[in-house]
Design goal:
heterodimer, A: alpha+beta, Beta-Lactamase, Phosphatase 2c, domain 1, five-stranded antiparallel beta sheet, 14 helices, B: alpha/beta, Methyltransferase, Methionine Synthase (B12-binding Domains), Chain A, domain 1, Rossmann fold, Globin-like, 60% helix
Chain lengths: 558, 362
Amino acid sequence: MPPLVTASRSSSTRARSADDTVGSSWADAPCPVLVVDRYGTLVQLNDAARLLLPEAVSGNRLHETAPSWLSDAHRKIAGGPGEAPATPLSGSINERIVLAHPTAAAGGDVVWWLVDDTDRHVAEEAVRSAQTRSQILTEASSTLLSTLNVPRCMEVAASMAAQHLAEAAVLVAPAQGRRHPLTYAPRGGPVVQVSRQIDTHSVPGLPEALQGFPPVPARWIDPSVLPDWAIPEGFTGPVGSVIVTPLPGHGVPAGALILLRSSTEQAFTEGEEVFARLFAARAGAALSAARLYTEQATITATLMNELLPPPLQRVHGVQYAGSYRAAKDHERVGGDFYDVHPGSDPSRETLVVLGDVAGKGLDAAVLTGKIRNTLHALLPLADDHQRVLDLLNGALLNSRHTRFATLVLASVRRRAGRAQLRLTSAGHLPPLIVRADGRVEEVPSRGTLIGALPIVTAHTVETALDQGDTCLLYTDGITEARGGPLGDELFGEQRLRRVLAECGGLPAEAVVERVQMVAAQWLGTGRHDDMAVVAISAPRTGGLSVVDGRRGTGRKDG
Amino acid sequence: MNDPAMSVALQNRLWRAVADGDEYAAVDVLSKALSEGLDEEALLLDVIAPVQERVGAEWAADRLTVAQEHAATAINERAVAALAHRAPDGARRSAVRGRVTVACIDGEWHAFPARLVAETLRLRGWQVDYLGAQTPTQHLIAHLHRTNPDAVLLSSSIPTHLPTAHSAITACQAIGTPVMAGGRAFGPDGRYARALGADRWAGDARQAAAALEEGFARPTPAALRQAVDDLPHLADQEYTMVVQSRVQLVRQALADLEDRFPAMRSYTSEQLERTAEDLAHIVEFLATALYVDDTELFTSFLIWTADILEARHVPARSLLAGLDILAGQIRDFPRALALIREGTAALGGRPARPVPGSETPA
């Protein structure tokens, strides 16, 4: 592109007058127009230009009248060999943003056409800040929603607020008892969480915010009255402006957010107040979701504890071990159950129960709880298995549950180095005994199931375990496990016997673990029923307890 | 106090007790070592851990039965429990550092390494939630929501759990909990831990403790990703197809083997089942190698299996036949075929070992 000034040669025949060179219509142009000679003197300007530069008159030096960005640009072009800039020049003149388009006129004059671009700039700025805000809100949402842990959620909310909305943020959670959990987040500093007794009335608007009432506008809060507890440690300088905004929960107040800026920072604008509210809405929703989840999880855990299988250990010189795998792995409870009720002293029998309620999942688990409680109450009668089963049968028939159950009762007492067993099966799979040398025997106990018929018939078998022998009670979830290398074979009793044959002389835990592990490997990732296993072992070497890491006093009872 | 000679002597004594299945002798060895001034961490990591490793090695060499291995592990577990339950020394036991969760990947039964890490971290002052063997991912995530730990340590010994491990790792990170992976499954140098996007890998309990003490940042939600983001090769669907047709592959291979070796027709059902299991293992490891796109995972499994078979007087050539037949079934899968080729070459390149005793087929 040729230098701008050369363009004027085409009109060099005309007289040296602005009117001649650019025509007279420029004076009426709706945009400000300046005609400046090559030495930087303002030759003429139109009415619109006078509005923009009220001080300017013809004959002024441009650099004294207009901002330097314009006069510098003029010098470059007029001083030749200046070229027209690739993009229009832009700058501010008296708080307006203008685009400056130069055209060449005769005698080296330059005509500056100034186009007001302020509105576009304002709009672009608004779009940019809206984009930033929506980006922040998206990030806030995904970060906040990623956790269902209340303290973590408060930490995230406070630190994001400090990062994007203010110099520091304090999240005040609803009181727990008389104390409020407080989360302090200075920008860039570590988040601190404490629980403190505070006077919420000491912060204007805080009691209302904690109740979820409409927010108090920032301008109504006098920063100087802010109590010390509301200012995070490490917040330097006096507080310049404060916003208190409620965190709206789903029907329940989730707390309030106090946003602080120091006096050296800009005060909160109305737009920022609105943005703070948008952020708070997201934080509040996430916090109340976390709070609801926590409450539900606590309730579930409390109820579940009653239904979980008990940890088993050695009792009166006999080892007990159990393992449970629910049909739905994450539910942890189901329709199988077991319990060990230790005898009041080594001369009394310990009662072991393992059973299976028809069905699976929580409904079945609730019924197992009922059966376990009933059996617990019937313990004094455990000398007579038939009687226990009769009473349990009556209780189940009379209950609103229509499910039935099968179970095995085993009464165990150690005597003369052997574990004496009385076993009764009520419609359940017969227990298996693996002797120390690996022989596997079935205990021939037979009986009808419980909760279906008015009369229960059962047959109790007596047997004994020598040292190293183990009696295995198990549910059909083990033998009916479907899988194997070919995909759909039943695990079956034969395989269980083969596994047991390798387990002669093993401690009870090892037997239980081995059986569950082999069955689990057989299943692979396939679906399965509840699987429960209890092993009763007569230990090989005396009846010691090593729980405390020392040789216990238990050897005598062995 | 960390005297290698003393550690070795203690290892030998503990090994004898464990191999005899004598729990009391085992606890005696440990109690005595403690009273002589050995610290608990050294006892856990320099005595108990090597003995447990030896239990596995002795099983591999067919000097322990599977059941004895279980018994030995149970005794070692109880020894660790006995240590953990010793009269607590209040000052040392109080958790002063932070809270962490230690768990095994769903399906992983080998909990002992995780247990050692958990106890070591407790000794170092961490509050540890130990969730034990095969923790369902859903259960793990619920636990993390409830407790908000500083980190979760996931353990796995068998590489075939790597796909499950991957989903557990991404799930933990998605809720903002950083993950440290550990255990044999993640490769000798932790390469699979990195491939699966774990925040850290630790080769042993001491490394795990050191990494935690150093601290690491929480993953951001921007780190949210799906399996194929970490492992772009999964887009070829070879892994998915092999996993889906696992059962058919094994069945067909078994039938083909019978055609090739008529002697198999006289196998007992138990022998046939062993053979089918071996084939199923090959397919499983093949699938896992496809998942992480790593040849060595497959070849090292084959070599290990060949060693195990030969220790039990089974010639490893049955593996080669299995590979050959599988190759015929997966002709359309270039990555899988390449793996089988490499596997066959690796088996062929093994130093020949004399097979003692008669050659009983699998």
